[in-house]
């Protein structure tokens, strides 16, 4: 009842209802069962990359362009729980200018996902929130996530396409490769092209991607600060097709995340942990139980 009513209000543009709906998913009070559809046109796009690389600034620029034709776009900004010290993060976030723009503000919705609050699997929560936004009349959903840990990588894998945002070279090689992010990317934007080292890094990435890869993802230079390359990036991303290599990596992440979600949401999960703790059952038995279909 609550769900239907809130969905219907949110569809009519009631942002308080939408916020309540998303919070109830975030808190695990509402569980949606999103279906993963495959189509040529993406509905969920992930922007991922190291902290401070300019993801939010870039997204703000892209939103200004993408909403020009009236497309309604919602953003889920996933707050990392680990990479930087907790509290200050939200305040740290660059304010999106598009949300204050008189003609654009109704076409954009920005919502943070506080991963620290979540007791369940974060990627599942993000996936359900994205599905909820699509259900309530948003044309596209963008997930902004710091590509730092495995959980963040899985958040990105929820999306239909993944765009990796990089910055100028820092002299320590291609970090994204280590994080397993490079193989998930359908395109790469090297931001801060106004700074030295950006072009060098773009070349490093191109070289690294060409190794054993017949159809490497595109690498483009942009500057969110100056607005250079933004129109080109907006076109590239909007029409982005998935690369087969990224598709395979994404399915892998999705299966792992589904598995984790099933286990975390199992009705007996806490009891089984207690039994393990008390030595009443062993690991094998516990695991078999957790994999039994839960009614
Ligand atoms: N020089 C330069 N600075 C930029 C550019 N884009 C963003 N910045 C600056 O980089 C800093 C971080 O920008 P954000 O957009 O917050 O970066 P982010 O990747 O979203 O950061 P987190 O969400 O905290 O991971 C800000 O101080 C921006 O002003 C750019 O193209 N050139
Ligand atoms: Mg940001």
Short description:
With 295 residues, the protein is an alpha/beta fold. The protein has helices at 2-11, 15-26, 55-66, 89-92, 122-135, 150-157, 175-178, 198-210, 230-238, 244-264, 269-277, 283-291; strands spanning 44-49, 73-79, 108-114, 140-146, 161-166, 187-190, 218-221.
Written description of the protein model:
This protein has 295 residues and is α/β, with parallel strands linked by helices. The chain has a single domain, classed as Rossmann fold (3-Layer(aba) Sandwich). It is built from twelve helices and seven strands. A seven-stranded parallel β-sheet has the order 3-2-4-1-5-6-7, with helices on both faces. Helix 8 links the parallel strand 6 and strand 7. Helix 2 runs antiparallel to helix 5, helix 3 crosses helix 9 and helix 5 runs parallel beside helix 6. The radius of gyration is 20 Å and the shape is globular. Bound molecules: guanosine-5'-triphosphate and magnesium ion (MG).
Features:
binds magnesium ion, binds guanosine-5'-triphosphate, Rossmann fold, 295 residues, 7-stranded parallel β-sheet, alpha/beta, globular, 12 helices
């Amino acid at each position: 009842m609550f769900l239907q009513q809130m969905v219907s209000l949110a569809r009519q543009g009631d942002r308080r209802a939408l916020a309540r709906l998303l919070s109830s998913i975030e808190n695990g009070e509402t569980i949606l069962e999103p279906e993963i559809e495959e189509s040529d046109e993406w509905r969920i796009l992930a922007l991922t990359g190291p902290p401070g690389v300019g993801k939010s600034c870039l997204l703000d620029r892209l939103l200004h362009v993408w909403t020009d034709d009236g497309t309604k776009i919602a953003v889920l900004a996933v707050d990392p729980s680990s990479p930087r010290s907790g509290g200050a993060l939200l305040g740290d976030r660059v304010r999106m200018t598009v949300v204050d723009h008189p003609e654009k503000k109704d076409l954009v919705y920005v919502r943070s996902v506080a991963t620290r609050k979540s007791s369940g699997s974060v990627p599942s929560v993000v996936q359900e929130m994205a599905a909820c936004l699509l259900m309530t009349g948003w044309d596209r959903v963008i997930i902004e996530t710091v590509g730092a840990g495995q959980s963040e990588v899985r958040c990105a894998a929820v999306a239909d396409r993944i765009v990796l945002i990089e910055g100028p070279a820092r002299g320590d090689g291609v970090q994204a490769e280590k994080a397993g992010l490079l193989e998930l990317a359908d395109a790469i934007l090297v931001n801060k092209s106004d700074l030295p080292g950006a072009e060098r890094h773009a070349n490093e990435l191109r070289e690294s991607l060409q190794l054993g890869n017949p159809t490497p993802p595109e690498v483009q230079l942009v500057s969110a600060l100056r607005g250079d390359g933004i129109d080109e990036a907006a076109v590239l991303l909007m029409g982005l097709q998935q690369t087969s290599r990224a598709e395979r990596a994404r399915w892998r992440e999705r299966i792992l995340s589904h598995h984790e979600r099933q286990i975390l949401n199992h009705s007996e999960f806490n009891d089984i942990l207690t039994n393990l703790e008390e030595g009443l059952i062993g690991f094998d038995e516990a695991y078999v139980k957790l994999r039994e279909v839960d009614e």
